[in-house]
């Protein structure tokens, strides 16, 4: 059974909570998850008081409005401890809160539409010249897919040497580096565009998957009766010197989990409609990216 089968009861998570949590926590601790702007400077006490105070008051309001009992409060404490023990804080925050931070950031941004980074990016992947084939196993399962496009600035200037950092799951919903099945670097790579900012990459269509269900984030999601599924998607970091790096994901038309993404990251503007190339089962989609100059 694979994660691509539509079911009322999700299958076993494609990556163990502890394994995924440990990797994501190390990336966050090293600051590798902040790829969209400079690191925060010194804390402004007034800003801390305002934001943290509002967050705490929201929790207090939930306690008051829903008459939370001591038994429920103790269960909440135990859940917080479990999130810490498994290293799932990056997963929980990226799934349930990052999309709101991304919406705020997008208010002042130009260029192509972006979305959340998520917890599964890894640095130091294979550097590839376009046209490129992502690293994969000789018998890599799944539908062969070509993604083609051009990277330009907001004034239409092609961005020579721009890079497209890409990563996604395999046909069974597994991320390399966060699960034991795929080899290191599988279906990950940084593709260098040509002198016209054009790229062409060959890969496999990814599969939908659930967030890890054996950890506290998945258990909370199921206890609330929420869908733990993410639609099939491709992650991208599109970069060029002197321009703001675009963090985005690309989804696929017809996916049963579009509009019900547990991470609230899917957007109509980011949905691909790949077409057959006539070369067996191979499909192709075109997607251009526009980057905003740094101020």
TrEMBL record:
GO biological process terms on file:
catechol-containing compound metabolic process
For bias type Basic and acidic residues, the affected ranges are 283-295
Q: Which GO terms describe its molecular function?
A: catechol 1,2-dioxygenase activity; ferric iron binding
Keyword terms of this UniProt record: Dioxygenase, Iron, Metal-binding, Oxidoreductase
What residue stretches are annotated with the Intradiol ring-cleavage dioxygenases domain?
147-175
Membrane: present as a keyword of the record? no
Q: Report residue spans for region: Disordered.
A: 264-295
What Pfam families does this protein map onto?
Dioxygenase_C, Dioxygenase_N
Q: Which cofactor does it need?
A: Fe(3+)
**What family is reported?**
Belongs to the intradiol ring-cleavage dioxygenase family.
Q: State the PANTHER family in the record.
A: DIOXYGENASE, PUTATIVE (AFU_ORTHOLOGUE AFUA_2G02910)-RELATED, INTRADIOL RING-CLEAVAGE DIOXYGENASES DOMAIN-CONTAINING PROTEIN-RELATED
Protein name in UniProt: Catechol 1,2-dioxygenase
Please tell me the species this chain comes from: Actinomycetospora cinnamomea
